[in-house]
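REQUEST
  id: r-88c1
  op: predict_structure
  target: Mab-21-like HhH/H2TH-like domain-containing protein
  payload:
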Amino acid sequence: MNIDEYCEDISVRLTEVLDASGLGADIRWKRINTWLQIEELDKILVALMLDNTNSKSFYFGSQAEATTTNELLSDIDKVAYENTVVVLQDLQLWVFSPDNTTTFLMVTDEGTPPRYVKLQLVQRDAPILVNNYQEKTIRLDNRSRSVLCNATKITRRLTAHEYHGPANTYYTIGIQMDTVCSLHTNCWPDQAFRWMSSRNRMYNWPSRRTIDAVQTTEALLMPVGHKLSPELHLEWRLSFSFVEKLLTWQFNSTQYKCYVMLKFIKNTFINVDLREKILTSYHCKKCMFYLIENTPAVLWRPSHLMFCIDMCLRLLLSWVEGNNCPNYFIPEENMFLGRCVGLVQQNVSTILHDLLWQKRKYITMISYESIGGNFARVCQSLPMELDHVNEKTLQISFIYLLHLLELLCIVVANLKFCKLNVFKSSHGLRQEVRNMILQLLCSSLGNHLASQSLEVEIPNQEKLGMEYEFLLLGSSSDVASGNLKLAAFYLAQSNINALEELLNHVEANLTHRVWEYGESAPDEISSMILRGNLSVAKLIQHYVALMVFYGPLDIYSVPKVLIFAMFRSTGSESGLDRLAIHWIPTAAVRARVVNKLQNRKIFVTMNIPEYYKDLSIRLTEVLDASGLGDDIRWWRINTWFQIEEFEKLFARIKNETISKVCYFGSQAEATTTGGLFSDIDKLLVLNSKKVLQNLQFWELSPSTEETFLMVADDSTPPGYVKLQLVQRDAPILVNNYQNETILTDSKRRSVLCNNTLVIEMPQIEEYHGPASSACYNGVTMDMVAALQAYYWPDKASKWLSSRGRRYNWPTRQIINAIQQTGVFFVPVGHKLSSEQHLEWRLSFSYGEKLLMMKFNSTQYKCYVMLKYIKKMFINMNSREELLTSYHCKTCMFYVIENTPAYLWQPNNLLFCVELCLRQLLSWVECNHCPNYFIPEENMFLGRNLGAVQGKITSILHELLGQNGRYITRISYENIGENVVRVCQSRPMELVNPNAKTLETTFLHLATILAFASYVLAASNTVRLNALILSHGLRHEMGNIVRSLCFSGLGSHLTSQSLEYDIPNQKYLTMAHELLLLGCTSDKASGNLKLAAFYLALNNLDIMEDVLNHVAAKLTYIFGADGMLPNEDTFSKFVREDVSLAQIVQHYLSLSVYYVPSDIHSMPKVLILEIFRSTGSEPRVDTLVEHWIPIDVIVPELYLYFLQYQCYYLQGRVALTLIALSNIIWIAQVELQVLHTCVANTADVSWRRNILLRRLISLVRFTTTLNLLAYCLKQGVRPMDAFKVLCKSMKMKNHHNAAKWQIATLINSTVRVSNIRRRQ
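RESPONSE
  id: r-88c1
  status: 200
  body:
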């Protein structure tokens, strides 16, 4: 077989991912062994409950075979049967039966489908078949034979919630269980005789030893007939579950993983949108059996896993195309009959062809257990994202084991002493399990005896001694229940000292992590089980807290209040489900059953229109092409994380009161596109104030830090708090004190006013609620100053623990991570509050950001689609946003939490969007939008929705009634038009989608680096190194910061050494070394400062080499003036996963900054630019005020200017003219930028952004003109220089260094004319 190296490589990587996802050999066999012990316990339980030792039960299917994972949501398959019915294959095997036993013979005829039989009644006293006789369970077939009906009460012992074929389906402790009551025969059926003998097995699988073992196993008879048979109610299906279980256990590791991968593929691609499962796990299992039997064992290796999966898919494809899936034991049976026909057959065939055509790329699309994502990460040499998958894989088996133990406790609590003695030493259990059950029995026996002895006025001391011994033996059954029964015995005897000591012991045990009924096992316990340190018996003894059960026989030995619990039924009340009847006569101290899958069938049976699937896939394709693909998404998120790290450092340099800088919202979460014009949400955490939740955590604070306590009362709205001042030297709350920032509330408490942090912020143009808005590089930024506390507030404590999460989202690991992030206090009060100025809003922005990071691709696109719909249809003509992005985000959180993970697939995107719209509609109709973390907070209050409630409702109703047609009307990023084009099989119209999506990220990056360059130009290197180390800045970004700092420090030292007539050579040498170290900061600025250094020393040859090096490498991609990369460069960044440091070093040309301390190291003309202001000129916009005392030169302009100076001093006229023409070209380009900056839009804020960007460009343009005039003056073209300077002054008549050049030019002209006059 020709297996390429690529296939082997991805097979090894896929095996690695599956091993790490709970499908390793150790986990597999732990699960199998656990289910074997569950089977042993269940046999005892069935025998005790039915009072019949002949009853047996077995577990089959995915759970017992360990061929499922946590997210596959596989149910538990259980088969139970009794020995009261004997089934023969031949009358020669007939023997006389007891009175309570009925005998049947398996019979077939021409009309009986393969693998099905009828069961004809045999006389009790002779081997004679019965005909023409019928009763309630016996019916006559078409040949007048008396056969057993498959709807007999034997198969319907329990009342189920629903029926799936022959199975009674229950939901037990959140797990779906299918129970089948069947019959069995001890002989191998004749229909499968060929499998046993004449089958040709060229590769000896299964082995002869296995076949011989199989021959002695039982065949089961399931009460279900063939779907297409006219006598299906009289037919019984032969089941070889015992054999299949044995064969599955013999799978090697690769065969096992191949089978599980087939299930993943089946659920992800084939059955995902079909109401009825066309391909089942049973078909996949049969495919595996046939393939293993007909392939050599050497093929099934980890390096061939993908090849084996492809072989299985090809075999399934051949079966689907031939519409014949042969049963493994009885090949004459076609398991596709009545199932895979017509259009369904064509669809499944197309899907399988498509999977095989993709050449294994489909692996990355498998979302179960994050297989696809982790596979992609492993292929990129990134670490896998694992959320306790091994522990989760074990959860169901151990949860069900605990459930059986609880049922056993109930049964034992209601059994009599004689019956307990009958069963306590039977069934051949393992020693440790046997001891555990005996301890439970001893505890119950002790209670029975105590009740008997306490029934009379004078207790029987002999019995009391015996019951004490029994209770003492049973006290070690688990962590608590046995000891608590012993404590109740002490209470009945009024032995208070012994009671108190024992209760303290139990309380100490319960303070540690224990596992209780109805809950998932804690991660610590699962990890211990995983490592092999815990057996089942030790697990129950040391880490499980069973409920305490009392039965009617214990009536005198229990506290009186529990007696009422036993007699909760009066006897005349209506009956209950048979599954709940066992609770009625039993007192359970703690009974809490969590049904996690209660609503699962709602989503399984959802009526999703067929065309929704096709439209969803096409919409997904359009969104991917419009800059919303996973690669763009994660590149943007990672880039914003690095920008956040980078800015934390500079926030500390500029302002010591800022301890942290965080980015939230649409930009940082990558949930916006260029057409949405989302602003940047920036949060500054101040360290000047400390917030406590409890005074117990008070500590003495520094003199500069104030401490506050979070307080609330009945008048404080949910989600808001007040911050009461705490004394500096003691944990005492301050009252009746106020100053500028501290005011007294209605209860005379001294609380912090929420305008305090705004006062501490720099002067900003506008305020939006708690946010101060500014514009940099044409991008609006909302900055919020806040306080932070690293604890979880009590108001949101329910979100951590008591919230019922049916579908395990968010996971426990995410919840723990969110808890560690704490809470922010944002300075804004509730709009309807009378003390709005004293209230602070609780913000969980970090937690929301973490949850957004966990959105899969469909959830991510669904959220962006909600934002499109909100802006396009709901808020389009409204001055104020009726629904905000935060409402949409909250809606997403609630919908994801209450829907199964398998619903969020690309072909369900449109359906998921409408689920969210329905949720929003329900909130609008009742005018209540609950906060995700604090549901008591109504986020619609204060938004004046009453006036527009009807309008929003009608809009949402109209959208939901359009059956998805509104998608074509979305104009953002041409989404609607491109969906139409894709549906018509035409190419999409895309205009630089990546560039538009990433534009804001790069503009903000340019702004951050512009300020960083300025700050670092005048910073101390030692202080910067300390800050870099203390803030844990990534190594590569730390190097860039140091390079910028070295470049600035080199300019300082050069200026100091050249300040005097005789330069300081020591300083010059040190400055040269620093400037060389600073050359690696970016593409040009460091090298240009080095060239200026050589110019100052008149070392023109080396200067020319440096400038030629810069000119050869300089690609002006983007910088602080808003110039952006092109589409190809954007795509390269994402495709090659270029880091932020690599972008800065290899693709970015930073502007060159000079500060007044560099005055002697820069060209003379730039000294005039530093002193462009006379001091008496009017103030300028605060947003560009920082440009006034520094020089900022665009790198290309500075390159050509330095080239002109170099060639001019060398006397190379031709090259001087070329450099001059390049400077003129730059001036013309910048003039065009100025003329095109005015926005043609009605959006006032956007126009302001453009105008501010134009103002910054204007400052730079005047610098360009001034440098051009200086070069013209050097070239003896004074009139041209004068014209250029006049144009510069006309463009900006203040804060312009052109006035100094005009003065010097006039002065020099006058001097020349005077000299000529004298001559």
